[in-house]
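Predict structure. Chain length: 383.
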Amino acid sequence: MTRFKKNPTSAAMAIFLYFAVGALLAAAAQPPRNIVLIGWDGAQRDHVKEMIARNELPNLVALSKEGAMVDIDVVSGATDTKAGWTQLLTGYAPEKTGVYSNSRYQPIPAGYSVFERVEKHFGDDNIETRAMIGKKGHVDNDPPTTIPYEKWEKQQKKQKALDKKKAGLGNIPGGVITEENGVKVVKVPGKPWYNASQNMDLFVNGLQLNDKVGEMALKNLEECKDKRFLFFIHFAEPDHAGHQHGENSQEYTDALKSDDEWTGKIVAKLKELGIYDKTLVYVIVDHGFNEGESGHRYAPYVFCATNDKAVNRNGTREDIAATVLKRFGLDLTKIEPKLDGIPLDEPAPERKAPAENPGAAPGMKAKAKKAKNKTGVASTKKG
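Prediction complete.
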């Protein structure tokens, strides 16, 4: 038997590699210091994928190459803004939050949002929770109000007509009709983010333009560069363009390009500040758009793109919050009530949105089928 002498240099190198790999694995297992959630409101999945095929969303592609881009389906709640962002940022189906749609809602119960949960986990002084939001309506934190019945009735008629014309755009306030001092009034519930915003470091909505949202985001990143933070940066322009010009319009495409440009600027800022390697970024979406139309009455197909290498499967809106909370090191088994979402690195039963709205009346299903046949599933979009 031939014997070989040990090479001291090789042995030293092996020891070095062993500890180096161990250190890298240990670092990878550590929770990120920061998480940034970038909202692309109303980004239809098929439209986005067609733009990717035309190399029109380079920053989204670059981000997902570091981690993953997965399909997200809406399997509970309406395909609208109030229901969408509530599910994405709480991990719950509507039955637990009371936020079913733009017209049926209440304040999210105190403590249910990802922002409040990480504040409690780390301590108020140990994490910054900040939201910079393009929309005012639907991602709002107005307190409960009481309004005269006549005023409420006029609002109902106006918004119902608006919602009928462009599904998903209406903002019909629900409420309880009652009397106060012999006068008929309506008690309107607070908006979904009323409770959560009271326990966050910053909640600003109604910024409208992507540029305003993006500029505020960069400023806040600079302010928080030496702190742990959870940011929600919400871009509203695709939804606005879709309602005004339709999903197949050049304006809708341009709005998505703007989202992509700002996503790139946010990533670049994180790198400039030297904190990108400590930060997970997720691009998330509340709802899509009906193919070729200007509404999203039933538009359940969206996506998540991220630099999170652990994400490995498709999911639902509720899974985003579960993923965020797990990444920050929270024990999901101790969260009450139990989350409906499952982290995107854990096995889960397949949950797919049906092709037709299961809650729609037969006439609405026929109308949707007719529109689908007219536009074509694989239609080529302008721009």
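Summary: The chain has 13 helices and eleven strands.
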